[in-house]
Amino acid sequence: MYSNVLVNCSNCHTPLQVPPGAGSIRCALCQAITLIADPRALPHQPSPSPHAPPPPSPYNQAPPGPLPNPHGRKKAVIVGISYKFSRHELKGCINDAKCMRYLLINKYSFPDSSIIMLTEEEDPHGPKFPNKHNIRMAMFWLTQGTLPGDSLVFHYSGHGSQQRNYSGDEADGFDETICPLDFETQGMIVDDEINATLVRPLPHGARLHALIDACHSGTVMDLPFLCRMNRLP
C-alpha cells in the first residue's frame, strides 16, 4: 500500500501527503500542482502491524484522589488568519474566528473578557495581531494558572503544514505545524511546542477543546492516540 507517501511541492517544496492513486496534488500554501506519474513507484513507509502492541502511555491511568469540581473557569484563544494580500491568502478564516467567539459567549457562557482573539483586523503592533510571538504568548496565557474543572478552548483557522523532524519522535519523519502570519520570516509553530504549551501543563480534571481548521491538523496536538473514523461503504 502507499497511503502514507509524502512528496515535496514542485514550487515551494512543502511536504505533501499523496492520496492513494493520485496522479497530482495541489499545495495548500502556494497552490502549485505537483504531478505524480506513478504513486506506486514512490518510496513509502510500511504501515505498522495491526498486531503490534500499542506503546505505553502516561495517560491511561487516572491519578488518585476525588473527582474535581466540574464547574471551573472558562478561557479561550481564537486565531483566524487569512494571509491577506499574499500568495497564501485564505477566505473565511477571520469569519470563522468571529463565529467561534459568538458561539462561546452566547451558547457556552464564556465571559467576553476571558477570550483572546487574534486576527489581522487587530493592531499590527498590538498583542492580538496573529504573528508567531503573539500566538505563542496567547497559548501560554491559556494554560497559565489552570485548575481542575477549568474549561479551555483553542481554535485555529489558517494554514497548517509539516516540516522535517530530526528528533525521531515522528513515525513519518515530519512534525505538523501551524503557520502564523509571519511564518515565512519567523518560522512555524510545531506540534511539539503546541503539546508542551497546551497539553502537558493541564492538571487532572481540566478540559481543553482544540479545534484546528488547517491542513495536517489531525496530529498537530501531538497526542498519544489518534482517532480514525471508518466510513461505511
Task: Considering the chains and any ligands shown, give keywords for the structure.
single chain, 233 residues, alpha/beta, Rossmann fold, 2 domains, four-stranded parallel sheet, three-stranded antiparallel sheet, 21% strand, Znf_LSD1, Metacaspase-1-like protein, Pept_C14_caspase, cysteine-type endopeptidase activity, Metacaspase
Question: Could you walk me through the main structural features you see in this protein, from its secondary elements to its overall organization?
Answer:
This protein has 233 residues and is α/β, with parallel strands linked by helices. The chain has two domains: 36 residues; 146 residues, 3-Layer(aba) Sandwich (Rossmann fold). Helices cover 17% and strands 21% of the residues. It contains four helices and eleven strands; from the N terminus they run βββββαβαβββαβαβ. The strands form four sheets. The protein has a four-stranded parallel sheet with strand order 6-5-7-11, with helices on both faces. A three-stranded antiparallel sheet has the order 8-9-10. α2 packs parallel to α4. The protein starts with 5 loop residues before the first strand and ends in a 20-residue tail after the last strand. It comes from Trifolium pratense (Red clover). GO terms for molecular function: cysteine-type endopeptidase activity.
So how many helices?
4
> What's the total number of strands?
11
Strand content: 15-25%
Overall 3D geometry? globular
Instruction: State the CATH architecture of the largest domain.
Output: 3-Layer(aba) Sandwich
H and E order: EEEEEHEHEEEHEHE
CATH topology of the largest domain: Rossmann fold
- Mean of all residue-level pLDDT scores: 79
Kindly provide the name of the CATH class of the largest domain.
Alpha Beta
Radius of gyration: 19 Å
**Uncertain residue ranges:** 55-70
User: Helical proportion?
Assistant: 10-25%
Order of strands in the sheet with most strands:
6-5-7-11
Outline the biggest β-sheet. Answer: 4 strands, parallel
Structural class: alpha/beta
Instruction: State the domain count.
Output: 2
How many angstroms does the end-to-end distance come to? 20 Å
